Amino acid sequence: MNTKSLYSTLAFAGVVPFLACALLPLVGIDTLPLIGRLDEVANSYGLAIICFLSGIHWAQHLDGRVAMPLNLMVSSNAIFLFAWFAFIMTATKWSLALQILALVAILLVDRSLKQAGVIDADYFRVRLIATSLASAALALIILS
């Protein structure tokens, strides 16, 4: 498996739980036995994904082969802390809404990395699609 197909597969597989949490309530399933309410599952999973994406930025920063347009360790840490504080201090729907903002902020960081030549256009395209799908799923969860 080449790198391009690996990150595409991982990105789109990572969106599936968001989509499941958004779509299952439309068919009357809002809780999974032993797991819990799907909005809370999406909230926890969203925080984990934001942490994962921040970790990718840390790895890119620590790799150090390319000059970064911004300090990824600081920016990604700030975005993650924003999402974490929202997770622990707000109601689930607010936390989900603020996770959408965090996902968009991480995407904007990726856009600056693309413009600086740190990541390629295909990687950014995959991130854009995955972020759009995840954000739409989170919005659907908030509205349901």
Question: Could you explain how this protein is built, in words?
Answer:
It is a single chain. This protein has 144 residues and is an all-alpha fold. It is built from 5 helices and 2 strands. Strands 1-2 form a two-stranded antiparallel sheet. The protein is globular and about 50 Å long. The mean pLDDT is 95.
Approximate strand percentage: under 5%
Helix content: over 70%
Low-confidence stretches at least 5 residues in length (pLDDT < 50)? none
Q: Would you report the number of β strands? A: 2
Q: By helix and strand content, what is the structural category?
A: mainly alpha
| Mean pLDDT across all amino acids | 95
Question: How many structurally independent domains?
Answer: 1
